Fold this sequence. Notes:
alpha+beta, conserved putative lor/sdh protein from methanococcus maripaludis s2 fold, 22 strands, 35% strand
Amino acid sequence: MSDPAPLPQPQQAPDPRTRRNTYLLIAVALVLAVWGIVSRISARNALEREAAAAALVTVLTGKPVQGPASNRLELPGNVQAFYEAPIYARTNGYLKMWYTDIGAPVKKGQLLAEIETPEIDQELRQAEADLATAEANYQLARTTNERWKGLLATESVSQQDADQRAGDAAAKLAARQSAAANLARLQQLESFKRVVAPFDGIVTQRNTDVGALITAGQNPAVPLFRVADTHRLRIYVSIPQPYAGSIRRGLEAALVLADHPGRTFTATVENTANALDAASRTLQVELQIDNAKGELLPGSYGQVAFDLVADNNTLRIPVNAVLFRAEGLQVATLDEQHRVRLKTITQGRDFGKEVEVLRGVSLGDTLVLNPPDSISDGMQVRVAAPVVAAPAKKS
């Protein structure tokens, strides 16, 4: 008889501690897995945000400002005498004597110098003799003509002979008139031996000396004398086209000269060219200033300052905010979300660091300074923080 089969042993229930530890390990593994996934997603999102932020263009901003009530325009000016004339010789000879040197005040008609003209003197004497001969010939021809007219009345001579005597008298009269005109011409040349001042003024140049050869019409760049009337001076200024419309007769300007440091003289606009120079696009303006005391010197270089009335409705923006595009002049403005909005502007006058804007922007607009060439409408940008100047250290 065989042995009976062994009975199955009952399974032992798992230890509760072991089961708890197993659950704990599973939970930790799940937490670590979730944490790893979340951290990777968060890092990727942060990287995307950093990349997007790095892709934004950082810009500086500025604001339009209201134009001032007046504009000060400073330009170079040339100071000239009210009248100035070079004095040339009108006859040939040698300088006999000069009577006025540079800086000497002269009156109109005052003798400046004398010229010796031996050739003109001889020609003058010859012309006087020629005129006397022509006068004698004319008187003889006139008397003969009168006699032949009487003979013709009694038919003692022919009409042909009488006409010949009349023609001879007319020819002699013309010869006398020619000799008289030649004498007058030489007398006029003789008068040019005296070089006189054309108006009241001051001798500013003397370019000759005793014994110098004088030739009529010689080198025009070297006159014998130069006389200037300095009781009143003219100042010539070239006004740029944008300011030409603001210049009016009677407008006062401040004149500053290097030889009078710290002093300002007042000049008045007397005339304008009323036309722009085609080459420089400027308006020539003449100002005048009284110089009765002789303080100012003609030929000086000075600075002329005009205070021009400005249009209070205009704005000014920094010149580095202007974009030069095919559509015209534009500026880049920012909205509240820091998105670019391009605006086309109408420029007025250029003040160097600033330009005047007639239309296109308003006082509250935020302008992008030094905008890149790639900036476009709707583009998102980042605004740089304003730079705060550090306070000065106390010594």
